[in-house]
């Protein structure tokens, strides 16, 4: 099957012009053998390459290109299928964009690319190449900072805050995971993640309940989260709790119950953020909206969780604007290598800025992901890179330090 792949990358510092020529001629021979055609654009610092050919050949070639040490920040911009080759007549040509910026610009370039006459300016590949050819691509894309600039020293595990013990008869418990601002080294909140009595995941607890008790049990479980925070003496940062939307709807006095739990643990509503997802259809949007309004009136913060995954979508965001938007980890995963995810997150961040919403990136596991997100303007992070959830205690955080 004929497939097309486009990526962008940045030249490794100190690469000489003749080396670039050598790379291209080696690539040309290799690509011929693989029946891969395309085009390689270079602007003095960045490469953008279109590869087209049999899908197995293209994927294998891209894998080895990604590992090539002579360039870095390799970002895949497109992977698509096509009925025919766009660059069949060209082999693999190196085009120095600087000549085209100075000369006839995009049109001169496209005239060469589209020499076969079979292409139109509407073509998707050409649309992607356009900002590069015009020289303005940096307005459209974020380049992450270098992960090598940072080290994450191991934390002193001997120093976690004291873990609380499970009380007799307590049906469930909580793990805490910090949400951090790495550059200012602050913990902005702890998220309380439900665990079964034996320490298992939330589903283990929920599936042990009769279905008609699910929402009430979800709501009532929070008393243990508030008590935990109180006993650990965490007063200077917020506590995020998770609730099914229906847990705010199923009981008529759900918000009052929550407020009583909060004050019984000598916490304040202003300390608390409720995270909701759209894991399930909200059967009664009107009651849900009024529960949200009640939370807001009481001073409790609201976050949309898992944004971009499954059901947590744009209509929920359009319906009510939360204090925080937590971008789901399926969007965050390997974002530094993925042009589609980067474009999506950039537009989420624009929407957040326009609505005064604080974005949070969830599930950050690698330094590279963090570096890209921070460069794109995200300031708050949650993920294994910084700290894993700790049962009944507040785990130590790994803070990044500038290398050397
Ligand atoms: P969530 O609210 O999105 O919580 C984050 C989940 O991602 C947690 O899973 C956490 O352990 C995991 N996580 C955190 N950092 C990373 C990372 O870097 N990589 C990966 N792969 N995972 C990471 P957990 O604790 O199993 O919870 C799963 C989900 O269960 C939660 O997702 C939340 O939607 C739900 N949940 C948790 N506690 C409650 C609760 O009290 N009530 C309700 N209704 N749902 C809850
Ligand atoms: Mn959550
Ligand atoms: Mn989440």
Description of the structure:
The chain is an alpha/beta fold and 404 residues long. It folds into two domains: 2-140, Alpha-Beta Plaits (2-Layer Sandwich); 147-402, TIM Barrel (Alpha-Beta Barrel). The protein has helices spanning 17-34, 55-67, 97-102, 105-113, 124-134, 202-206, 214-232, 254-264, 285-298, 314-319, 329-332, 339-355, 367-376, and strands at 2-11, 37-42, 46-54, 71-81, 92-96, 150-151, 172-181, 186-196, 238-243, 272-276, 301-307, 324-327, 358-361, 380-381, 390-391, 401-402. The strands form three sheets. Strands 14-13-12-11-10-9-8-7-15 form a nine-stranded mixed beta sheet. A five-stranded mixed beta sheet has the order 4-1-3-2-5, with helices on both faces. The protein has a two-stranded antiparallel ribbon with strand order 6-16. Bound molecules: ligand C2E and manganese (II) ion (2 copies). One manganese (II) ion binds at residues 305-306, 326, 362. One manganese (II) ion is lined by residues 191, 242, 275, 305.
What would the keywords be for this entry?
single chain; 404 residues; alpha/beta; Alpha-Beta Plaits; TIM Barrel; 2 domains; nine-stranded mixed sheet; five-stranded mixed sheet; 16 strands; 35% helix; binds ligand C2E; binds manganese (II) ion
């Amino acid at each position: 099957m004929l497939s097309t792949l486009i990526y962008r990358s940045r030249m490794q510092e100190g690469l000489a012009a003749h080396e670039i020529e050598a790379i291209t001629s080696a690539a040309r021979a290799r690509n011929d053998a693989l029946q891969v055609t395309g085009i390689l654009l270079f602007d003095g610092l960045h490469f953008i390459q279109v590869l087209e050919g049999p899908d197995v050949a293209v994927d294998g070639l891209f894998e080895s290109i990604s590992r090539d040490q002579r360039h870095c920040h390799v970002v895949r911009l497109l992977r698509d299928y096509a009925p025919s080759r766009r660059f069949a007549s060209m082999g693999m040509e190196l085009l120095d964009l600087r000549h085209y910026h100075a000369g006839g610009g995009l049109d001169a370039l496209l005239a060469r690319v589209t020499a076969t006459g079979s292409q139109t300016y509407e073509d998707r590949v050409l649309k992607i190449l356009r900002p590069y050819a015009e020289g303005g691509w940096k307005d459209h894309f974020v380049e992450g900072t270098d992960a090598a600039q940072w080290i994450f020293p191991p934390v002193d595990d001997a120093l976690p805050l004291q873990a609380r013990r499970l009380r007799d008869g307590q049906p469930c418990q909580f793990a805490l995971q910090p949400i951090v601002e790495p550059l200012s080294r602050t913990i902005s909140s702890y998220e309380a993640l439900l665990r079964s009595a034996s320490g298992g995941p939330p589903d283990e607890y929920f599936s042990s309940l009769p279905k008609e008790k699910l929402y009430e049990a979800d709501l009532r479980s929070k008393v243990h989260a508030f008590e935990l925070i109180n006993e650990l003496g965490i007063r200077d940062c917020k506590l995020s709790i998770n609730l099914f939307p229906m847990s705010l709807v199923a009981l008529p006095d759900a918000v009052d119950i929550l407020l009583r739990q909060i004050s019984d643990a000598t916490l304040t509503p202003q300390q608390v953020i409720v995270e909701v997802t759209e894991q399930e259809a909200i059967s009664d949007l009107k009651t849900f909206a009024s529960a949200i309004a009640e939370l807001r009136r009481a001073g409790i913060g609201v976050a949309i969780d898992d944004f971009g995954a499954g059901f947590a979508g744009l209509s929920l965001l359009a319906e009510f604007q939360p204090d925080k938007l937590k971008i789901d980890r399926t969007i965050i995963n390997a974002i530094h290598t993925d042009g589609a995810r980067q474009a999506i997150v950039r537009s989420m961040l624009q929407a957040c800025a326009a609505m005064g919403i604080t974005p949070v990136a969830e599930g950050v596991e690698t330094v590279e992901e963090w570096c890209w997100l921070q460069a794109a303007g995200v300031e708050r992070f949650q993920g294994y890179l910084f700290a894993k959830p700790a049962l009944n205690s507040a785990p130590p955080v790994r803070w990044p330090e500038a290398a050397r």
